[in-house]
Amino acid sequence: MKTINEKIIDYIKNHQGFLIITHQKPDGDAIGSSVALGKGLKKIGKKINYFIQMPIEQNLNLFDEIQTFNKITYEEYDAVIAVDCSTWSHTYRPKQMPKFKELINIDHHITNEGYGNYNHIENVSANAELIYRLLDQLNIPLDEEMADALYTGISTDTGSFQFSNVTSETHEIAAQLYKYPFSYAELSRKLHHEKSIEQFKLYGIAVQNIKLINHNTISWTLLDYSTIQQYGGDINISDDIANIGVNIKGVDVAITLKEVEKKIYRVSLRANSECALDVSKIAKFYGGGGHDKAAGFTYRSKIEILLNKIVGDYNIAKDKRNRQQ
Amino acid sequence: MKTINEKIIDYIKNHQGFLIITHQKPDGDAIGSSVALGKGLKKIGKKINYFIQMPIEQNLNLFDEIQTFNKITYEEYDAVIAVDCSTWSHTYRPKQMPKFKELINIDHHITNEGYGNYNHIENVSANAELIYRLLDQLNIPLDEEMADALYTGISTDTGSFQFSNVTSETHEIAAQLYKYPFSYAELSRKLHHEKSIEQFKLYGIAVQNIKLINHNTISWTLLDYSTIQQYGGDINISDDIANIGVNIKGVDVAITLKEVEKKIYRVSLRANSECALDVSKIAKFYGGGGHDKAAGFTYRSKIEILLNKIVGDYNIAKDKRNRQQ
Fold it and tell me: Which of B125, B162, B212 to mutate against chain A (most A CBs within 10 Å)?
């Protein structure tokens, strides 16, 4: 197993007060990493505060330690530790930052440019992998809640060990976490399957509205404004809706339109692993962004025009690749 | 890591010809275990045949080795090896069994009573865990297809590392399999997410038809005969439909009715982990079977009568438990 930057380990060993922060809209990895790090450092006598954006998503409000978030009890810190934050501007932090001497940046996004005074940036599946190692290097034993928090980070950032970011080491760490007697089965169900009835209904309608076009290579679906309102608003649209289309056999590009305000659509694009079209180019054309396989943007015109644009670009990309082969 | 029965290891070392069989309607673990075992034994010069029920489910038809299934080239075997078969009657085997000297039984179901001359029965997540160890004890190196086959067994029998059967050792084995350069991400997508458009449509309708009863503690849904026919028949009803209900927050029991013939319903019952009702009792009452959290049966009367029976039994079970606490 690789090691965490020894300068960070030494700095933590030799100092007392730390403020833990993470990115805006914290996800399972942000919260899990923060909880495990904070609880661990408290165990070796450090003075720890957290400043983390609330409210925590209901599915992730799983740890007693969350009760101690945002109780700022110190005026000054030896260091702020930013976990899982690819850029400084993406951190969630007090408007008036308290005094601190150093900024420690621990992150697993390779695009991170190293905004800290001390940095550990490494391309692993989840930030929780790095926190696991850091605690191990500091000889801090885990407890059930810490193991649970690290598992939450890994499980959510890997889609339960299914994404291409998983490595041998991801499973080695999971094997260690299984030595703590937590019910990971029930946790997995909560993290990956549990939905409210409204979330399920919106999912079901998105499935029902799917249409296949361009010889069944492109799927699109729409949740219209009144449907979204009927089931409690767009807060009840679960992320997995965007992935339905690319899991249909034969489909290369999936388009999901959510009419969040009247005639204003939030659009998600997904491409399967062998798709010739880079969907981030479509997203950028409409002022959005993303990756070649997953991108998004806001759209305010006729749906038909958008579908024609995507079909056109898809067929050109496919044709170009066919001629190159 | 525990070891496989040394008598089995010695018997394999000292003999040449083996017929590999598994259970009827082979699933991912049955096929994955068979492929990895058979390919492995061929690597050390053994004469291997397979007798396995065809056709293989499309999602599982992933291995070149499947091309060699059911090509019976020997008249006599030193042993038949049954993998993943909890009982002898559940095996799929030739009507006229060829001659064989011994029967080796390798299985992970604790209910297995040891019908072989040599038995290794151990309660692990997937039979593939046992095959991994057996190959390791025989010093047989894996190749990509074998690693892929073992991963398929583990991933399908654990719901991608989410079921309560997962242990530290399950992840330790996965960590080893990741040393072979296979795309487990694409494999996981195929095993756990890919559906045909018809399967998705039926899933979506099942979601849309969900009704919550008994103060939202019980969900039920129906796929009626004409809907099932419209989307190509019950072969297109995916297994995960039965689990929708118990993944709705607050629901304890989920009832799924599939009208497979006119007025004949295949019923699946699921209970969440804290449910007071043992759903296998309902299933047995109607001539079916299963476990306390997952059971099924065939039903031929009015749906309302069935719902009343389940609601009644559920409330009694809950009341009884409340009074005991």
Answer: B162
